[in-house]
Amino acid sequence: MSPDLQTRLAAAAEILRAGGVIAYPTETFYALGALADRPDALARLATAKGRAEGKPLPLIAADVAQAVAVASLDDPVARRLAERFWPGPLTLVLPAVAPLDPVLCGPGPSVGIRVPAHDLARALARAAGGPLVSTSANWSGEPPVTTASRISQGVLARIDGVLDGGPTPGGLPSTVVEVVRGELRLIRQGVVPWQDVLRVAWR
To answer: In a structure prediction context, what are the per-residue pLDDT tens digits for the chain, which is 203 residues long?
Structure first.
């Protein structure tokens, strides 16, 4: 990582720790982020996104240790999936281990989380000190973006900064799978094929 990028990463992490909202790159698209334990920032992020009430916001973590601070990997199936697909574009919807803001859990006790296959995104979560929201950096209903320059002015006006890490690959978003007592439910098909998930889960 270049000295310039390290400086910008540190500045972005400081904004997050202060309760701010930023945009940052992931292994698929640019995302909007705020720390999971900052209720005011989460509310602002949902407003910036135009997120419908009751539609939970997913998280990313720097590593498994950071992930299990908010989500349980006690289920053997969940552990196998995390071991195989993290870091990577598989979001697991898992039981929350502590009370979380309703914008993260919706009406239920679960939270979506992944460890992304993007060095800068993981470094940002590590520098900020906790899991971050990771929802695409676009107004709900509009296409996700692969460069910082394509984030709309309407979104930019509602956030506190952008960590520009260059273009992202785009393509499909992360696959989202719920794991409840060893049972799987496909919530969104994305980069990771469902058949690959099943193959690992039931090996």
So the answer is: 788 999 999 999 999 999 999 999 999 999 999 999 999 999 999 999 988 777 899 999 999 999 999 999 999 999 999 999 999 999 999 999 988 999 998 667 899 999 999 999 999 999 999 999 999 999 988 999 999 999 999 999 999 999 999 999 999 999 999 998 889 999 999 999 999 999 999 87
Q: Which pTM was predicted?
A: 0.94
**Which single residue is written with the structure tokens 């696959």?**
175
Domains of the chain: 3-201 (3.90.870.10)
Residue 141, judged by CB atoms within 10 A of its CB (0-12, 13-18, 19+), counts as exposed
A 10 A CB-CB count for 159 gives 22
Nearest to 136 by CA among 113, 170, 102: 170
* Cβ pair 175, 197 in contact under 8 A: yes
Q: What is the SS3 assignment for the chain?
A: CCHHHHHHHHHHHHHHHCCCCEEEECCCCEEEECECCCHHHHHHHHHHHCCCCCCCCCEECCCHHHHCCCECCCCHHHHHHHHHHCCCCEEEEEEECCCCCHHHHCCCCEEEEECCCCHHHHHHHHHHCCCEECEECCCCCCCCCCCHHHCCHHHHCCCCEECCCCCCCCCCCCEEEEEECCEEEEEECCCCCHHHHHHHHCC
